[in-house]
Q: What sequence folds into this?
């Protein structure tokens, strides 16, 4: 069935408290989607971010980001006051998240809410802690220890707690009791608020597409607690890390630094860790995008400590063993595979064998640096079992992309869409229409593209650190007129969400 949706990070929602969260703005966005005939709201990962603020580098594969907790909800329940929240400096730019001030000030407010909550006496909190006992105690202790050691990486902690010796674990659990309880409180509030928002979206017949990175962070609880899952030596030091080989953009290749999985161990355990991760993931989302799908076929391994990726090599991943096990243990799940970049025949075969829809990005169809795959992204070549995007969180906005095209490149685009009349500043609508009318079963358009924003609204520029992940949408940007335009396109190209039509 043909359908469509909008890509917008939760953090990009408007908010007077510095960052998009599970506040009224999120519910208003769900209403906007429903009234525009949409089926999906695609978001970025919801995990707690670390240095660099990337949602793809998180402290946990399961935990939620406390920044997304709605302060308005805490005001309503009486654990915070509006005066307290209004007095905090969250930054002066309504179109940017100031993560420095988030870290400095928002957690202080949340700590006040915790101290006033009497949380330990609440049955629903106790129930939450019990039901999440497979991951929550380790996460809470890990985050409390991060605070205890001035946010240093766990690899820099004292040896006894770094290696999780029994007496050290007992000591810090006692010493940091209230810090640990605070971290558990944050997760309780996060999941309570998110589940409420998701339920509202589902009642409106809006499905949430989530996103999970293939790799975990080196400075994360999964790496600290489960060394056996990764390629490590006898001293628990990494023996190899993730990266990518040299290409036209990086002569020495790239070192990503993420721990690589010990796939032999995962196979021997029936992929228990992955099954548990995906089980928790599908509690949060209706559908899931698997980032860097190529890594499940083969991955690039760089020796730990290498100065460049030139000494790296390819190794085989789990392939269909993982996905067959997933189907056997969890049943059929709605997955989308991120198969962008240079694909090999074996990756293409894995995509085909999995049966999951893959991704098509329109910008790649007109890439002047194309190495032979552009035709895969031209709409007339799409298989129906795919998801088309004008761009992703890693791309330029469509308006920004069009603005920097050369005359020759612009002619190529206009020739393909048979349009030499539309003014350049309005051409982004024609690119959106190309995606909408394609044969792809699902079409996802970033909110920035519907708004016609330039590259100042870009979410991420890979391999850079400055101002990524910080864009926020202006309050009032989603107008009735825009909603009507989106609805018209949605109906015109047969993507209207008929489930949202209430029975008389």
A:
């Amino acid at each position: 069935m043909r359908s469509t949706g909008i890509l917008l990070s939760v953090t990009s929602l408007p908010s007077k408290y510095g960052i998009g969260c599970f506040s009224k703005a999120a519910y208003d966005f769900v209403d906007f989607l429903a009234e525009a005939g949409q089926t999906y709201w695609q978001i970025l990962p919801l995990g707690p971010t670390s240095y660099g603020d990337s949602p793809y580098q998180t402290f946990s594969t399961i935990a939620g980001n406390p920044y997304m907790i709605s302060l308005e909800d805490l005001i309503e329940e009486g654990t915070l006051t509006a005066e307290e929240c209004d007095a905090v400096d969250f930054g002066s730019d309504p179109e940017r998240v100031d993560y420095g001030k988030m870290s400095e000030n928002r957690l202080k407010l949340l700590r006040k809410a915790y101290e006033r909550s009497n949380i330990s006496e609440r049955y629903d909190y106790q129930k939450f802690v019990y039901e999440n006992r497979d991951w929550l105690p380790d996460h809470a202790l890990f985050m409390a220890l991060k605070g205890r050691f001035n946010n240093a990486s766990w690899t820099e902690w004292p040896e006894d707690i770094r290696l999780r010796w029994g007496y050290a674990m007992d000591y810090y659990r006692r010493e940091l009791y209230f810090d640990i309880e605070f971290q558990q409180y944050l997760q309780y509030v996060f999941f309570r608020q998110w589940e409420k928002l998701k339920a509202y979206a589902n009642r409106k017949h809006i499905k949430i597409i989530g996103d999970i990175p293939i790799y975990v962070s080196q400075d994360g609880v999964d790496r600290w607690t489960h060394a056996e899952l990764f390629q490590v030596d006898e001293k628990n030091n990494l023996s190899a890390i993730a990266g990518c080989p040299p290409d036209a953009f990086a002569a020495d290749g790239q070192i990503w630094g993420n721990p690589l999985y010990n796939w032999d161990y995962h196979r021997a355990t029936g992929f228990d860790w992955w099954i548990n991760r995906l089980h928790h993931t599908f509690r949060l989302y209706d559908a899931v995008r698997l980032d860097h799908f190529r890594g499940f076929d083969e991955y690039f391994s760089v020796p730990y400590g290498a100065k460049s990726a030139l000494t790296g090599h390819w190794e085989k991943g789990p392939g269909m063993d993982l996905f067959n096990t997933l189907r056997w243990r969890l049943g059929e799940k709605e997955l989308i595979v991120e198969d962008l970049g240079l694909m090999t025949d074996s990756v293409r075969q894995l995509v085909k064998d999995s049966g999951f829809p893959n991704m098509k990005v329109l910008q790649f169809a007109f890439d002047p640096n194309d190495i032979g795959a552009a035709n895969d992204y031209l709409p007339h070549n799409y298989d129906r079992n795919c998801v088309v995007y004008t761009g992703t969180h890693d791309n330029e906005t469509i308006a920004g992309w069009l603005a920097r095209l050369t005359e020759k490149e612009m002619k190529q685009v206009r020739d393909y869409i048979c349009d030499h009349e539309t003014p350049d500043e309005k051409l982004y609508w024609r690119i959106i229409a190309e995606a909408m009318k394609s044969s792809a079963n699902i079409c996802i358009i970033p909110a920035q593209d519907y708004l016609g924003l330039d590259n100042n609204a870009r979410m991420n520029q890979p391999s850079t650190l400055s101002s990524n992940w910080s864009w926020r949408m202006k309050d009032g940007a989603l107008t009735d007129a825009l909603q009507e335009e989106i609805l018209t396109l949605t109906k015109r190209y047969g993507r209207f969400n008929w489930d949202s039509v209430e029975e008389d």
Remarks:
- Residues 366 and 409 are 7 Å apart (CA to CA).
- The longest strand covers residues 207-212.
- The mean pLDDT is 94.
